[in-house]
Amino acid sequence: MIATNYNPKESEEKWYQYWMENKFFHSEVDKSRTPYCIVIPPPNVTGVLHMGHMLNNTIQDALIRRARLQGKNACWVPGTDHASIATEAKVVTKLQSEGIRKTDLTREEFLKHAWAWTEKHGGIILKQLRKLGASCDWERTAFTMDELRSESVIKVFVDLFNKNLIYRGVRMVNWDPKALTALSDEEVIYKEEHGKLYYLRYKIEGENGYAVVATTRPETIMGDTAMCINPNDPKNRHLKGKKVIVPLVNRVIPVIEDEYVDIEFGTGCLKVTPAHDVNDYMLGEKYNLPAIDIFNDNGTISEAAGLYVGMDRFDVRKQIEKDLQTAGLLEKTEAYTNKVGYSERTNVPIEPKLSMQWFLKMEHLAQIALEPVMNDDIRFYPAKFKNTYRHWMENIKDWCISRQLWWGHRIPAWYLPEGGYVVAATEDEALELARVKSGKADLSLSDLRQDEDCLDTWFSSWLWPISLFDGINHPDNEELNYYYPTSDLVTAPDIIFFWVARMIMAGYEYKGTMPFKNVYFTGIVRDKLGRKMSKSLGNSPDPLDLIDKYGADGVRVGMLLCAPAGGDLLFDESLPEQGRNFTTKMWNAFKLVKTWEIADIAQPQHSALALTWFENVINKAKETLNTQFEQYRISEALMTVYTTFRDEFSSWLLEIIKPAYGQPIDRKTYEKTLDLFAELLQLLHPFMPFITEEIWQNLKERKTGESIMVSVINNDTPYDENLLKEFEFVKEIIVGIRNIRKQNNIAFKDRLELKVKKNDRYPAAFASIVEKMGNISATETVTEAVKGAWSFIVDTVEYFIPGTGNVDTAEVKAKLEEELKYTRGFLKSVIAKLSNERFVSGAPEQVVANERKKQADAEAKIAAIETQLAELK
C-alpha cells in the first residue's frame, strides 16, 4: 500500500541506514575503475553544522553521487580539524567555569582536558552531516591530530627545516591579545572603524617650537624611538638633524628622514614605534633604532612603558587624550575612518608585536604553486579567483607557523643547556643530534627542553589530500597512487590563502603534482537582506531544524536552486519550502503511476509517440547535465532536471498516457513509463538522494542490496533535435485549443473538430496526441481559412475550430491584429541584430544561423496572419 503522503523523516532514516549497511559509501582501490575522489574541507572538531556547511556539503554530495552513477569508484574522505585557537579557547572557558585557570595546570594536565573535550564534542558535526545525506566514506574518517596525521606534520616540519625553508627569529607579527598567540597575516580581518586622528605636540629640543604628529594610536607614544619626515617635504625642512621630546614621556628622540613618509598625511611628521607597527619596524631596522615593547601579551601596558602600567590599551587611549589635553600637548582631534586589523578567531583588535617565532619561507613554494593555476592545470570555478590567487602569490610573505598554544602539534625543536637547538621527529633523534651538536656524549633527554609552542592549525590541513592517504609517511603507497591527485575540491573563497593555495604548494613540494584538478568556490550564504548569516546577527536558521521541517531533500534543493559558483546565495525559507513542494510533486506522480490498472491490450498511438518523445527529452537532458556538471554549473544542472520532471514528465507525458477514468493502461506503455521514471530518478538522485531511492525501490521489485545510488546512468543516448522542436509546436497547438475552450467556456467533455490549413510545417505525425489532449473528434486539412471559426497560428500553420454559431469575428480579428503587432516588433528586433556587422562577424556561426531562422519564421508567420485577416474581411 502506497502512503498518501511522503514521510521524509522515516525515509531518510531508513535509506541512510540501508546505504551504510551495504557499504555503498566505502571505496577501495580498484584499478579496473576510474577513481573519483573528494576530500572534505575539515570542519572544526568542536563545531556544529551551519548554513555554509550545508551549502558546501550538499554540492560535494551531489558531485560524489553523480560520479557513482557514472560508474566511477567514488571516494569522499571525511574528517575534522583540531582548530588550535578555537578549541583551546573553548576548553579554557570551560575550565574557568569550573574555577580552574589554564596557568594553574601543567601542559599535560591541560591536554587531558582538551582531549576529553574533543572526545565529547568532536565528531558531532560529522553525525549532523549524515542527516543531510552526505555519502562520505565514514570508514576513512580522519582527524588532523590523529596519530597518522600528527606523524606526517612533524615529518614535514623536520624536512622543511633541513631544506633551510623553516627558520626561527624575532619578527613583527600579528598578536592576538585574547588568545595570547601570534597569527599569520591571513588570520587578520580588516574592519573599517570610525575613530579619531590625534594631533600631538612634540617639543623641539633646545627650541620653543613644536613638531606636530597626527596619529590614530596615541597610547603607543611610550614606545616612540624616533620621528620621521620626508626629505622632500619643504614644510618640515626646519626639523632636519634635530631632536624632539616625546609628550608626557619626556624621552628625547632623533628626527630621521625617509621617503616612506606620506607628505600629505597629517602634518607630514611620523612617530616611529618600531615594536608596534610593521612599517615602523622596517624603519627601525633601516636606521638601527631601539625597539621598546610597551604591551604585555594580554594587551595591557607593560613596565617598559613607564606610564599607565597594567592598564588596558583602550582605557589608556581615553586617559592619555585627557592627560595630553591637560598638559597642553594635544593640538586637536579630528574624526577619522581607518581600517583596523581584527583576529579572525577571537574578534579582538590585533597588536603588531615583535616576537620570537618560527617562520616558513614562502618564495620557493609560491613559485612552484603559481604556474599550475595560471596555466589551468588546476582549474578554478569561477575563473575570477585566479587573479586573487596570483596577487597573493606574487606578494607573498613568510608564514608565521608557530602559535603560543598547547592544543596542537608541538614544535619538534629541543633547546640545549648551553644554547642553540636541534630539530628532530622524535625525542631519541633529538637527543642524538643534541649530543653531536654539543659534543657531549653523556647528554640526557632531561637536559633538553622542547619548544613550548605548537604549529598553526593550517600547517596540518595543508597536507590534507596527501596525509589522508598516508602519503607523507609512505610516499609511494597503493592508495595514494590510485586516489591522488583528487578530482574536485569544494570550498569557500575566504580560505583560498589559508588552505587552497597552501595545499597546492604542499602537493607540488611532496608529490610533484597537483593535489586536485578542479576547485569549485561556493558563495556566502546570506539572508534576504543581503547580510551574511551568523549566530551573532541571529539571522541564521538551525540547519537541523530546517531538515526536520522540510526534509533533507527539500533543504538540499532549496540551497542549490540559487547557488551559482562563487556567487552569494540569498537564502529564504521559501527555498526549502519550494524543495519540499517538489518532493510532494514527485510523490504524487509516483502514486498516480502506481494506481493504474495494467492490461494486455494494444498500445495507443498517442502513448507510443509520447514515450518516444520523452525518451528524446531525457537523452537531451543527459547531454545538458554532462556539460553543466563539467562546467560546475550545479544550480543550472538541478534546474535542468527539476524542470524536466515538473514540466515534461508530470505535465505532459503522464497526462498524455494517462488512461481514461476507470480504464486500464496497456502493459507496453506502463513498463516503458516505469523505465523512463527510473532514468529520471537517476538524474535527480545527486540532488535528492532520499526520495529518489524511496520511489526507485518501489517502482519495480528490487533485489536485496540494490540501490539507485550505485545504478549506472546510460549516457550512450542520442536524441532527435527535430523531433523535440516539432513536439514544442504540438504543445502550442494543444495550448491554443485549451485557450479557445477557456475563453469561450467550452467544457473539456465537449468534443471539438480541428481544421488545419494545408502547410508543410504541420506536425501531422502527432495528430493523435493533439486529439487526445484537446479532446478533438476529428482533424481535417483544409486549403483555405474557415469562416465563422475560432482560430490561432502556431509556427505559420493556421488552425480553426468551428463554433456553434457564436464565434465573434471581431474578437478573432482583434486577437490576430494583436499577434501581428507583436510578431512585427519581434521581427524588427531580429533584423536590427542582423544589421549589426559586429554581431554578424563576431558571433558564432550557429548563433547567426539561429537569428536568420527566427527572421524567416517571423516573416512567414506575418504573411499567414495577414492572409487570415484578409479572409476575415
Give the C-level CATH assignment of the domain at 189-346. Alpha Beta
In round numbers, the mean pLDDT is 92
Beta-strand residue percentage: 15-25%
Q: How would you classify the helix and strand content by structural class?
A: alpha/beta
- Which CATH architecture of the domain at 189-346 would you pick? Alpha-Beta Complex
Largest sheet: 7 strands, mixed
Poorly predicted runs are none
CA-to-CA gap between the ends?
62 Å
Q: Which descriptor suits the 3D outline?
A: elongated
Portion of residues within helices: 40-55%
CATH topology tier name of the domain at 189-346: Isoleucyl-tRNA Synthetase, domain 2
- Please state the oligomeric state of the protein chains shown: single chain
Radius of gyration: 36 Å
Count every beta strand, where a strand is a DSSP E run of 2 or more residues: 31
| CATH 4th-level superfamily of the domain at 189-346 | Valyl/Leucyl/Isoleucyl-tRNA synthetase, editing domain
Q: In DSSP terms, counting alpha (H) and pi (I) runs of 4 or more, how many helices? A: 27
Descriptive overview:
By secondary structure, this protein is of the alpha/beta class. Among the domains are: 144-165 and 364-400 and 454-526, HUPs (Rossmann fold, 3-Layer(aba) Sandwich), CATH 3.40.50.620; 189-346, Valyl/Leucyl/Isoleucyl-tRNA synthetase, editing domain (Isoleucyl-tRNA Synthetase, domain 2); 746-872, no CATH class. 44% of the residues lie in helices and 18% in strands. It has 27 helices and 31 strands. Strands 7, 8, 9, 10, 11, 12 and 13 form a seven-stranded mixed β-sheet that branches. Strand 30 (789-794) and strand 31 form a beta hairpin. The longest helix has 28 residues, at 845-872. The model has no long low-confidence stretch (mean pLDDT 92).
